[in-house]
Amino acid sequence: MKHLLTLLIILVHVALSAQTLNKRTDWIGNTFSGATQWVQNFIDEIKVFENGVVLTASDWDENGRCSGLYKDGDVNKNLFKQYNGAGGHNCWGWGTASAAVAMDSAFVYITNCDGDLLRFTWDPENIHTNRYKDKIHIGKANGMTAALGKIVLALENGDVLVLKSGDLSELASFRVAGVRDVTVAPDSTLWLLVGKTVKHYAADGSPLAAEIIDLEDPASVAIDNQGRLVVTDNGYRRQVLFYDINGAPTLVQTFGLEGGISAGTPGVVKDQPLKFFSLKGADTDADGNIYVAMSRRESIIRKFMPNGELVWEMLSLPFLDNADADVTTDGAKVYAVDEIYEVTYGENGIEWELVAITRDEHKYPNDPRITTQTTHSAFIRTVEGRRLLFMSSQTAGPFNVYYFDPETDGEIAVPSGMTKGKGWALWPDAAGNVWYGDGRKIVQEPLSGFSPNGEPAYGSTTSFPVPDEFVSVERLVYLPESDVMFISGFTKDNRDPGGSWGLIGTEVIRYENWTSAPTQIFRTKVPFDTWEGGGAPDMILPKSLAVTGDYFFVAYVHNDGESGNRPPVKVFSALNGQFVGNLRPTKEVGGISGWVDMAFAVTAMQRSNGEYVVFVEEDARAKTLVYRWTPSVDNVARPLGDKNAAPIDFKLYPNSPNPFNPDTHVRFDVPKSAEVTISIYNVLGRCVRLLLDEPRDAGHYTLTWDGLNDAGDQVSSGLYFLTMRSGHFVAMRKIALMR
Hints:
With 739 residues, this protein is mainly beta. Helices cover 4% and strands 47% of the residues.
């Protein structure tokens, strides 16, 4: 019996593993894979040590990297953690959520959201080593610097606080209303960023005469290796400014292409690293290399030689974002909410490059991406050669509609000012029409044409009744080329059990002839499991739906019965609704999926070579997962009723439904005439039902288990094991009976 149980466990593991369709996992949108390292979600401030280590501040990173150390293309693996991760902190990021950081040769300083000044010991020659030392309470800070044995802080309440770096004793304190940042000059005087002006103060707080007033939108101040004042100006010129401060401040150098993202072809940044946007800070190392940080939604750090030559760049996608491929480019152009990437699909993985930033906050200050920052999903549609972007929030509708006018705006996505659709069930089809669920109606807003500059126009809406099967419609995908509609939601037969928000529902149903005479083709009950008090990673929660080619894809936010945070993307046939297998994160990304946390967390396309490319949100480590899969002969989708040629191998398919009550269907393939045995075992290893034990010719077969044992009695609820044996072939599946 013990040996049989061991065999059962091994076979179950093998059967589950066999359902994983992808051999590797790629990603776009972050310099690092996220296994142990990633570029953080936001950057609010940077400081640069003399040897070129970059220290960043952020008030939010989904996985806790609120302060990061970056050097020569590397980032610290050991996160900064207040109390060294022992707990008791009140701020996000292990207590390090911050807008102000500084460092000297002994310590890294972080002022967190509680107003505590934290000190960490560190080794400037090893960015992976740090340890929490102590803290004092000083109040929340906007900016901070460490120089000449002093720590100087610009506090939110307007106080400027000067501390001795060794024991943190107070040396001076004075008030400057509106102070935003501070730096210390070689002569120990202070330069303060106050509103849009840079002002000069003595070390004791006495105001000095010098000031800089001709700035548009200054973001930070610093002192470079030559003792010059460095100001980042995020106004229309979007440049880093260097001032000689020996006497009256004199602008002696500008760094960056004037106009930044608006210069040349607007939006295009490929091979143009000096086109800046959303500047957050700039600083230099002892050799005069220049470091620039940009962040509004994305995070980008660049190191330049003094002559402007790019040395390295590290970047991350915006927080809560996914990607969508332009099918007219065969997936070579991929769009996110603010970015366009070029992607090359190689045999051993993909290569990607950021080619454009699609927003311009100066030309289009009312862009919802800037005014609300709640646009988190993007769909790209090319209609009649015109590109449209549809952007929704984390919690779905409405869509904000954008268009491209290359002659005047290059690669900037122009906000049309239109919103379309509402609710969770929301979809832009390939023809540019918008569909959405509205109570007991499904509504189409048809694209009626374009203006000469590419702005879309929409016509009168058409409504269709929600099919009777549904209690609520949660997602929909309409395919105009075939008049096919996929609807997911909670049905009368499988209602919402509660336990989470924003899920796709319990069933996916396909309808043909949707706009004329809707005909149901199949109903698929998707795995779904919640319970009172349940939580990550145990519950099985379908979060997002995508349809392309012969398959549909369901992204999950929690696990499917495996330990660790590895929620799958489940793949189903779009022709017959049958489950095909799972896409799961592999070693390339540390075997982890992070978090799937929005309505449109998965998109998919089929490339011209037959390969399926699936993009999945991964907001924990600021990137998008990319699964690539080419169906094999044994999992190619076929329509219902297809009596295709005999299978090429033995195969035991997952039973359906599962869990089940009162019966479940068991499909299996036999490639040649052979003896076949199919049995049901309980968790003790006892055979409770022999379903089949006889010769079978080559073909596709289906059996039904009615939940009875060999004696004709009902078996109890619980876990069972379905086994198939034929010669040397052995396969096993888990079955759950829930009475």
